[in-house]
Specification:
alpha+beta, four-stranded mixed beta sheet, five-stranded mixed beta sheet
Length: 508
């Protein structure tokens, strides 16, 4: 009935795509707070194909803020963030969102109005959440599949009803949050492109939750030697005659769904062609000999050129941004794909090759510190408060880059009150990556130093509970040395605060 009703909806006239999008809003009681709008590509910390850089601003005295993204990557996740909250947004070109909340962390369904709001509000419905315990409590693949399929089907029925605008339907009346759903239909109806996108998200969820269940099953000793039945109901959606190709891979849920499909296809391939018994206990074992070559070839043979290009190019771009060899993916791009890839990352590639040799000070020996030199640096700030920002070049994209506008704002607001130094902790081989990350992010007007993990064990014991080498795995932490030389390590969110409030907060 829902399908027949849906067909009655008059086809929309969708205007030509506008490459930009706007996000504005009103946060009640948040006057003067700092807010950022950052992008979250498929591989966290990756270089954004559109060239987008995180934006930040102070919320006005009336609680309003506004951002414009000149070139939107369609369907990619963006997010608004303040000290007290976080709001995930999926944007399309032409979106014009209005946000009105008491705080970004407020648990509310209708957070946005305006063009593009429907897809955001729909994904905040309680029906889009899932009970992990119930899904994963059974080690039986068929029981898991029945539950997962039932959840997908119920979500699809609800999506059809919302898209069709059937606010008075029996289906919606039965929902415990019927009021929220009706408000969504009235205030932020779902457009045809949003409907198509949400259907893809629901399909990708089925694949992603299956590999998550497989990971849970791998820890069950009773299943360690049980053969995985790839012909079973749990794996029905994974095979290409039933797997709908995503429109794009900008949304990490869609990209992760494709990656999950590739994993299962490869395991099935290994089980069929190598005679290896693939069980719940051994399916994650590495290395997967020849996987990259098989993966890219499979994409080439079974998917459109643009999906192959996005997947392989995105992987190559991620390895590049991590300071790792990306040839295993880059070499599998065709000539046209390489041209597009090179155009997007040329600046970063140049910075990687000559960043520490350019006339910007990064090549200076004084920027690279050992234990003794680090203590000497601290001595220059004796008698005054100092904030030290420790970070990793390898995972800078996911741990620090999105905070650059916030950190710059902190230094401007606290000039003369507290000094800030930024200390990158990483392997010496990533010194060029350190320089590239700083310059690519427009962060080179701050005070930067590099400390190689080699030979500097124990250097940070007074400033962090983390082992020095652990910084190579990502993350950032801040410490404060006050005017009396007292060290306060792992300070919580210092860049949102004024220097005076920091000192009071950290006082013994």
């Amino acid at each position: 009935m829902l399908l027949s009703c849906q067909s009655e909806k008059v086809a929309e006239v969708v205007p030509a795509a506008i490459p930009s999008a706007t996000v504005s809003g009103d946060l009640v009681g948040a006057a003067g707070e700092f807010i950022t709008l950052f992008a979250g590509p498929w591989l966290r910390g990756n270089l954004d194909p559109s060239g987008y850089r995180t934006q930040g601003m102070r919320i006005g005295e009336d609680g309003t803020f506004g951002f414009t993204i000149d070139r939107v990557t369609k369907g990619q996740h963006y997010a608004l963030r303040t000290e007290t909250g976080f709001l995930d947004l999926v944007l399309f070109p032409g979106d014009d969102l209005k946000i009105k909340l008491d705080s970004l962390g407020q648990q509310k369904v209708i957070v946005a109005t305006g063009r593009g709001a429907g897809k955001i509000n729909f994904q905040r419905l309680e029906q889009m959440e899932y009970d992990t315990r119930r899904l994963f409590e059974s080690a039986d693949a068929d029981i898991f599949a029945e539950r997962a399929d039932s959840m997908v089907e119920s979500r699809l029925r609800l999506l059809d009803a919302v898209y069709a605008g059937h606010a008075d339907s029996e289906l919606i009346a039965r929902q415990p949050n019927a009021r929220d759903i009706r408000e969504l239909i009235a205030d932020s109806p779902i457009s045809l492109p949003e409907y198509a996108y949400l259907k893809q998200v629901l399909g990708a969820w089925r694949l992603n939750v299956t590999t998550a269940w497989m990971a849970e099953a791998s820890r069950n000793p009773e299943l360690a030697n049980q053969k995985i039945d790839f012909a079973g109901q749990a794996f029905n959606p994974f095979f290409t005659d039933r797997y709908p190709e995503p429109e794009h891979l900008h949304d990490f849920s869609l990209a992760n769904g494709l990656q999950a499909m590739l994993w299962v296809q490869y395991l099935h391939h290994r089980a069929t062609n190598s005679g290896r018994l693939i069980t719940y206990g051994n399916w994650q074992e590495r290395p997967w000999d020849g996987y990259t070559e098989w993966e890219t070839g499979y994409l080439r043979d079974h998917f459109s050129d643009h999906i192959h290009s996005e997947y392989v190019g995105g992987s190559a771009r991620w390895y590049l941004s991590m300071g790792s060899d990306n040839r295993s993916y880059y070499d599998r791009l065709n000539a046209e794909e390489r041209t597009a890839f090179d155009a997007e990352v040329a600046v970063f590639t140049r910075l990687l090759s000559d960043g520490t040799r350019r006339e910007n000070g990064f090549e200076a020996d004084s920027r690279t510190l050992d234990k003794t030199e680090f203590q000497g640096l601290l001595g220059r700030y004796t008698g005054e408060p100092l904030l030290i920002n420790f970070w990793s070049a390898t995972y800078a994209g996911s741990s620090i880059v999105d905070d650059i506008p916030l950190m710059q704002d902190f230094e401007q607001r606290n000039a003369g009150e507290i000094s800030v130094i930024n200390v990158c902790i990483d392997s010496l081989k990533h010194k060029e990556l350190w320089a590239a990350r700083v310059m690519h992010g427009g962060w080179d007007n701050a005070e930067h130093y590099f400390v190689p993990i080699e030979g500097n064990d124990g250097m940070l014991d007074a400033f962090s509970s983390r082992n020095l080498a652990n910084f190579c795995g990502g993350g950032a932490t801040q410490a404060i040395v006050d005017a009396d030389g007292n060290i306060f390590r792992e300070v919580d969110s210092p860049f949102y605060k004024l220097a005076g409030s920091l000192e009071r907060q950290q006082a013994p």
